[in-house]
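Q: My collaborator sent me two sequences in one message, no labels, and asked for predicted structures for both. Can we handle them in order? The first one she listed is below.
A: Yes, handling them in the order given. First sequence, followed by its structure tokens:
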Amino acid sequence: MGKNKNLREGRDRTVALLNDSLLQMEEQFEDSRNITKDAYGKVNTRLAASEKQSFLDILASSNQAIDTIFSGLDKVSGTLGESYRQQQNILNQGKAQSRADIQEGTQGALQRSGQRTQEAVDQLQPYSEAGRQALSRYEAALQDPSLASNSPMAQYRKEQLESQLARQLNARGIGQGGAPITQYYSPGYNQISAEESQNYFDRLSPLMQQGYGADAMSSQLLGNQGNLEAQLMASQGQNLSNTENRYATQLSDAQRAYGNQLGTYQDNAYTNKANIEKRLGEQQVDIRGMYDQRYANTQTGLAQALTNLNLGEAQATSNLNILKANAEQNYYQNKETLLDQINNVTATVGNVLKPVSTIAGVLKPTE
């Protein structure tokens, strides 16, 4: 009886000890699961922070590259614009100088040709004036023939005729004693008047011809001057038109070159921006894929660790329950044998929980 009592008491103590061990084991496994989840949670938090920072870093780098591109584009645009404005100023100055030179040259040519024409007309003026005077005298003589027949030369010749006839008549005794001799003079007077009248007109005729010639030449010179001035003005207009056309062409070429260059730099800038943004998207996809893999690895590790804990807990619980069942069925075994078995179970639980401590130590974040 005493032995059975001792065995029952030993059995009861064994079962109580096993129940305490089971509760302690469950608490230890629960703590281990919590530690494992917390450690993997901190790993996920660090991964999320690292992923976010990676996105921020590549976004900042991309934005900086894009800012650099468009800052350079602004500088290039300013340089091209300033160069175009300088070209425009040079073209404007050249056009203005060309117009001034053309107009000055035309005015100088007009002045010189007008001066030479006027000098020539002035040289012809005495001949023109003499011709007009001869014409006036010619027309007057036609109205009053005595102006031609009673010229000083006619008077002189008549006086010579009278003197000569007087000597001849005196020698013949005609006209002495006051006898009239006028009838002897009339034929000579008439001949002298006719000859001198013809001589008078003959002398005026060359003068009139010279006057006509001088007037005609003056008219031709003035006409030529007018034609020359018209040609010079037409040439000036054509030269000015050519200058404007050349200016418009050069300005258009400069504008087109400016637009083409600016367009090329703008196209390059936006192409580079698109490439950077494309690369940014690719990097974001790569980073997301990398961190997704890390998250997956973490989740896999967590699931594996929890599975190992659950399996270990299940195994330990099974072992304790077996011991409890053995204690119930074999309470007749001695206390020393039961205690050895309990120690073995405790050692088994320690071996199961040891990896959890190791995992917690590895996953513990650096403070």
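Q: And the one she listed second?
A: Here it is, processed independently of the first:
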Amino acid sequence: MIVIGFFLLCISLFFFLGNIIKSVKIEIQEWGFIIFFLIFGLAIIAFCIDPPEAWDLSRHYELINEMEIGGWSYVLNKSIYAHLPVINMIYGILAMIKMPHLLPVIVVIICYTILWYIVYKTVKDEKMDTKYVAYFILFNFALCPYLHMVSGIRNILAYAIASFTLYIDIMQKKNKILVVMMYSSTLLIHPSSSIILGIRLLLPIIERFNVIWCILPFWSLAIESIIKLLTTIPNQYIKSIGWKLLDYLTGNPYSGYKILVFKYIMLVSILALVLYIQKKIKNINKNLFRYVNILKITIFIAIGAFRIVFITDRMCYFIAFAGIPVLAYLCNNLSKKIKQLFKIEMLTICSMLFIHQILYFSKDLVG
């Protein structure tokens, strides 16, 4: 079965490379079929992966097996995710039908369907050349590694849903009840997604007081005080966020410093160009203006997490999805020369991130 997955993946990559290198014209409807094959192939590969013991996925499988043995009583009362009912219910259902290997499949399908929705709507609404579909997809794969998604499960799933919710909230002004339900679901998958909800709720305050923009790049200098505040609040959910931050700060050392510099270069470049365009172009759609501001805040938080760089990775997961409309905004407003330089820089950084992913994960999968 895994051969079929790789075959579909290779077909999709052929069209991606042809679109980028040879500028092969692919219509948006044809892209839909290519993305379908891509998602289907990646879902098959996810189903077939036998995770090394060091991967989080192996622990997820162990938990599902425990749920299968303990039944619904264990799922509802003793599961470590009992306080996160959305993800806990997914695990419980997979345990009852005895199909733990469907877990990464579900995550892959949900995340990449969200990615395609954002890309499709952005390209269509902004009347962009369809060649940008390949660039947007590659941008996502570079900042949000496929195997991180398959192994980590909850983090990227929560941020993908948060990015979708933000898009329909700010850009499309969808029904508020639906939006609230979607934001709530992300909180009940992984507590770290509360950062996105916090940004959304505080956006009017941040936009009003310019001094906050100056503080954001240095927020992690106060990380101990933030942790102390969160862990003293008499609410189990909020306390769990504080304990998770403490674990990020004092737990296992971060191992991705060598590649972190490329992420910082990418984030700073996007931020600098956004600031440049916002200063140059005053007549901007109000919804897009607010959306761009949210991404600016996210980038500031990612850059400011120099004392707790696990947060930088988490913000990159979110930006990999939510950043696509902002990239479209840049491509539509930059001069031809600056746009070409930006594309070359993005492709170079994405290539470096891809190489790092291959080398990093090959040690686990092969060695």
